[in-house]
Write a structure and sequence with these properties.
By secondary structure, this protein is α+β, with helices and mostly antiparallel strands. The protein is 38% helix and 11% strand. It is built from five helices and six strands; from the N terminus they run αββαββααββα. The strands form two sheets. It has a four-stranded antiparallel beta sheet with strand order 1-2-4-3, covered by helices on one side. A two-stranded antiparallel ribbon has the order 5-6. A hairpin with a 3-residue loop joins strand 5 and strand 6. Helix 1 runs antiparallel to helix 4 and helix 3 crosses helix 4. The radius of gyration is 17 Å and the shape is globular.
């Protein structure tokens, strides 16, 4: 059930499409977050199941920051999907193919988001904010499912997935589950070697 599509290592998109993909990944990451003592959304991943991979991508674009000894990431400046996302692009940023791996990871990890219906670009964003606490969990799941469907729609529009009636969304990558993101770490190491093995060069210049 593998569609004919571009190889992820050859994916090239324009700036607007790149930043749209960053936002898709960020919104899904946000839907998985809890709130820390400072009121900022954080995702405790424990570096398990490659959940730290898409967080690292977002950190390399100035959208998230690593904290708690690398076992979690949080969004900076109390960002929520109601606010514009500031993406700090630079020469050692994650590639579009890396972000596409994140989108594939999410559609593979949350297949129930799709049900029997293919995602479409005009699906309305569900309400998430200013809800009663007893309704928040179900709203978060609804919001996450909407965001995952948005990722699936992007993959379909960019020939990186296809919809199979009766089976659901089939993505183009050979791996499944958390292993989909394994190539990201190889891409990251290659970039790091190219810049003299500098970890700092993989991230935007700090404004702190």
């Amino acid at each position: 059930m593998t569609p004919n599509s571009k190889e992820t290592s050859r994916l090239s998109v324009g700036q607007a499409d790149y930043e749209a993909l960053v936002e898709i990944v960020a919104v899904i990451a946000y839907s998985l977050c809890s709130e820390d003592s400072d009121g900022k959304a954080f995702l405790g991943h424990g570096c398990e199941n490659n959940f730290n991979a898409f967080c690292d991508m977002l950190a390399r674009l100035g959208v998230m920051k690593e904290h708690s000894s690398g076992l979690s990431h949080r969004f900076d400046d109390a960002w929520t999907p109601c606010r514009p996302l500031i993406v700090r692009r630079h020469s050692c940023e994650p590639g579009a193919e890396d972000l596409m791996l994140a989108a594939m990871f999410f559609v593979d990890w949350f297949p129930l988001a799709f049900g029997e219906l293919a995602p479409t670009p005009d699906e309305k964003q569900p309400e998430l904010f200013e809800l009663e606490p007893d309704k928040l969990l179900s709203a978060q799941i609804e919001f996450r499912n909407w965001a995952v469907r948005k990722a699936g729609c992007w993959l379909l529009e960019n020939d990186a997935a296809l919809w199979v009636e009766g089976e659901g969304l089939a993505h183009a990558h050979q791996f499944e589950g958390h292993r989909i993101l394994n190539p990201y770490w190889s891409h990251r190491r290659e970039q790091k070697i190219r810049v003299g093995n500098s970890e700092d060069a993989l991230f935007p210049i700090s404004t702190d």
